[in-house]
Amino acid sequence: MKKIAVINGPNLNLLGQREIGIYGQVSLEDIRRGLEENFRGRCEILFSQSNGEGELVERIQQLLGRVDGIVINAGAYTHTSVAIRDALLAVDLPFVEVHLSNIFAREEFRHRSTLADRAKGVICGFGPAGYRMAVEGLLGMLAD
């Protein structure tokens, strides 16, 4: 059975409580449970969140040889972190970048991603469903 890591960055632990007009009322725990239910029997989901850039880098590095692909919502680090980009490149696993909101309909600084050019895909603007789309996409790609 395939293993997919779902990694979440800063402030995503506050989903359902912060900026509800942008991110909605669904919590990160709701997203985790939904993925585990949706993909039960199809793949194992390894779900994590951290507000620290260094901790995210370490988690990515620890995935080497343990998972088949990564779904990452790096939050604000999407736009700034060369360290997270380098960690993803170092482990050489296929990854999909996910954002709950449409980052291109928001502030100009959010339009740039340090990850997108190396991602297998980028999904934004579909809310929590984007995570499911990302896992489906990775599984389809890994089956080919």
From TrEMBL:
Catalytic activity: 3-dehydroquinate = 3-dehydroshikimate + H2O
Pathways involved: Metabolic intermediate biosynthesis; chorismate biosynthesis; chorismate from D-erythrose 4-phosphate and phosphoenolpyruvate: step 3/7
Signal peptide (UniProt feature, chain positions): none
Gene Ontology terms, MF aspect: 3-dehydroquinate dehydratase activity
Domain of life (superkingdom): Bacteria
Coiled-coil region: none
Site positions (Transition state stabilizer): 18
SUPFAM superfamilies: Type II 3-dehydroquinate dehydratase (SSF52304)
UniProt-listed Pfam families: DHquinase_II
GO biological process, one term: aromatic amino acid family biosynthetic process
Residues involved in substrate binding: 73, 79, 86, 100-101, 110
Entry EC number(s): 4.2.1.10
UniProt keyword Transmembrane, yes or no: no
Keyword set, alphabetical order: Amino-acid biosynthesis, Aromatic amino acid biosynthesis, Lyase
Xref: InterPro entries: DHquinase_II, DHquinase_II_CS, DHquinase_II_sf
Positions annotated as active site in the UniProt record: 23 (proton acceptor), 99 (proton donor)
Primary role: Catalyzes a trans-dehydration via an enolate intermediate.
Subunit structure: Homododecamer.
Family under the similarity heading: Belongs to the type-II 3-dehydroquinase family.
NCBIfam families: aroQ, PRK05395.1-2, PRK05395.1-3, PRK05395.1-4
Protein name listed in UniProt: 3-dehydroquinate dehydratase
Protein species of origin: Candidatus Glassbacteria bacterium RIFCSPLOWO2_12_FULL_58_11
Gene: aroQ
